[in-house]
Specification:
Layout lengths: L9 E5 L4 E5 L8 E3 L2 H21 L23 H13 L4 H16 L1
Antiparallel strand pairs: 1-2, 2-3
Helix pairs in contact: 2-3
Length: 114
């Protein structure tokens, strides 16, 4: 496996920009833009190779890998007292635990944006 294969590559259509945008979270700032999805992915792969080469030339450690990352399903989220109260009240209104309510809201948001 190439070092570049350790990094998640995302290519998505942007309605706002009317083109595909390719990015590599955690590795390269910015991204690649273009009208052809395949070409954007290819250019993104080249960008990753160049970033890795620069890190190696500078003897700089590479960021942690992002591809094939495993998630536990748990994370801590600090929302502030006011939002915490509002969420807790909304959860009570629908007779759900705060956790279940927040999972439902986050899932709905993720599904509507993905």
């Amino acid at each position: 496996m190439k070092k570049a294969d350790q990094y998640l590559k995302i290519v998505e259509w942007s309605e706002e920009d009317q083109c595909y945008i390719g990015r590599v979270p955690g590795l390269a700032l910015g991204g690649i833009h273009g009208k052809n999805e395949t070409k954007v992915f290819q250019e993104l792969s080249t960008l990753i190779d160049e970033w890795i080469e620069i890190h190696e030339e500078d003897h700089a450690p590479l960021p942690p890998a992002t591809a094939d990352k495993r998630y536990s399903g748990k994370f801590n989220l600090r929302v502030g007292p006011d939002l915490h109260e509002r969420l807790a009240i909304e959860a009570l209104k629908v007779s759900e635990s705060l956790n279940s309510y927040c999972v439902k809201v986050l899932r709905e948001k993720a599904e509507s944006s993905g």
